[in-house]
Design a protein that fits this description.
Layout (H helix, E strand, L loop, with lengths): L2 H6 L3 E9 L5 E9 L1 H7 L11 H4 L7 H12 L3 E4 L19 E8 L2 E8 L1 H22 L4 E5 L5 E4 L1 H7 L17 H15 L6 E8 L5 E13 L4 E10 L1 H50 L5 H31 L8 E4 H18 L2 E7 L6 E4 L1 H18 L3 E13 L2 E10 L21 H7 L5 H11 L3 E7 L3 E12 L30 E5 L3 H13 L3 E5 L2 H10 L4 E5 L7 H10 L9 E5 L6 H7 L4 E4 L4 H15 L3 H5 L1
Parallel strand pairs: 12-14, 18-19, 18-20, 20-21, 21-22
Antiparallel strand pairs: 1-2, 1-5, 3-4, 4-5, 6-7, 6-10, 8-9, 9-10, 11-13, 13-17, 14-15, 15-17, 16-17
Helix pairs in contact: 8-9, 8-14, 9-13, 10-11, 11-13, 15-16
Length: 659
Amino acid sequence: MDETIIDMLPLTIVELAPVRDDHGKIVDFIWVYANEMSNRVVLPEGGSIVGQRVCDIDPAYRESDMFADAVLCIETGQPRELFNSSRTPTPHGRLKHLEGTVVRYSIMPKGEGCVICSVEITDLVHARDEANDWLEMFRSSFDHAVQAITLTTETSRIIYANQALYDLLGYAPGELDGKSTQVIMRPEDHAAVVKAGTKMWGGKIEQQIRDLTLIAKSGEEIVVSNALSSIYSEVRGERIFISHGRDVRADRKLAHDLASAVQRAEHATQLKSEFLANMSHELRTPLNGILGMAQVLTGGDLSSAQAEQVSIILESGQSLLAILNDILDLSKIEAGRMELSFVESDLRHKLARVCKLYEPIAEDKGIRLRLVVDPSVPSRMMLDPVRLRQCVGNLISNAVKFADSGDILIVATADARGDDATRLTIHVSDNGCGIPAEKVAQIFESFVQADGSTTRKYGGSGLGLPISRKLARMMGGDITVASEPGKGSIFTLTLEGQIVHQEKPAFVPSSGRDTTAGNVPSEGGRVAPRVLVVDDNAINRRVARSFLDQNHYEVEEASDGLQALARLGSEIFDLVLMDINMPELDGQRALDRLRAGDGPNAGVPVIALTADSMRGDREKYIARGFNGYVSKPIDQRSILTVMESCLAASGPDPERRIA
């Protein structure tokens, strides 16, 4: 080969002749030929190494692997290959600049000597070592991963599986290498994975996550959530698919257990709600008798002592009714059945009415209620007036209860939020006993008060504030408190509402728990309306009769739906008060039969009497065909108001009775 071409090669090519001692042992070499690259490596300052002895250039050569292999090649006549043997070939002397390089040698015998051809591969070796380091790190990471990881070829052959997969499926490490994934998958899952892989190959999807059922060595089926992705291997010349499988058996069991627990909790809540609803019905029936007769007695000729006794009965019964309503409200909120009714309301009027309601109680204690409504408060807002009255009333009631003298200040302000939205803030401050800081949180817990003696001294169930806070939060606000023992408290109610600009009367649907005063029948100038009272409870019939007798109604009675239909089929009535829950034939079915017939009372107004007191009951019974609704315990003024409304719409007709 032309020496010019050889000198252009990035190789060192030298021919060595051995130098032997008197015993024939090779102790050195002489360079008899060296190409240009060899000269530059050994003598970087310039010059030629031809004719020089190797160990004269650097004695360290005598201890190198290359020297030993050159001797061995000459003595045996066999070529030698060295790789990575000269990482530090000459740690001393003139060739120290080569320290750290990696060289590949080929040594071939030639005559009495040898030819050595070498190439530096330091960068390649470093790249290989770095790649091996990364490979080891990745392999270690994969083997310590919690998820089961597999690498497969386009033909579904497993080229790697980590320890988690072997542990999951019960195989020995390496046992799955080269196997088809069909071994560890159900046929339908394997087909789905192959289909997804084809789409990845075509660039239609980058990743697929789906549930797979893997087959363990024992035959057990194991559900995993599998993420499949792919990369193209330049070295292998094919696409490699990477699967990450997560054992979801524990997750599925936990989800199932949680769902079962939720179902049990919902069932328990439903049972509790049904129990409370039934208890409400059962408690309201005797309460109806107690409160009803007490109201009747107030219209009689009583001595002052008797009047006081009746007043105590009424007050105690109403307190019991309030506690019953609180328990029902709490039950509805906890069961997620509390419904709010946002209607256009005169906010200023509502606040004034609430304060007016508590003025007599406050005046009895020498306390004055002061209401201050800031000009920022809109006249009309969309809100739930019943729940607003409940929240504000509870705060005022508590303030009156715990204050001994002075003023209770109720301040209302508003903060516009844009798009007619506003945040209403109502502060109720008193100078009562106050609440210790460590007990502030307790007052918002159900059935809990700041001090156990509070119940004994002031009464109450400990439900008012918890219910009011829950209602406030349902309306987008909250109730908070700032208090100092011995100086009083400031309770703050916030609500989110919508301003109403158009001027039109606010409409608030009536409810069985509202007590709105109305006109009572006058004694003269009309025929006494004839009313049929239908109730299976004799006390309830007696209460209703007493109310109506005092107000000049003609009253007849029936103890169940069948008796009522019999009388309605043969007599004329102007109005029917119908209990809902009765044996034999309940009020709803009695009404349906009455309306379906063509008797003389087919169109007579019928008012539902029921111990049900859930929000929305009035609308429910009106939708079912009743003309009105009154909840028990019956309030005299409320029932007379509803009756007058129904009679005004139909009117007693004396001629109809004669007919």
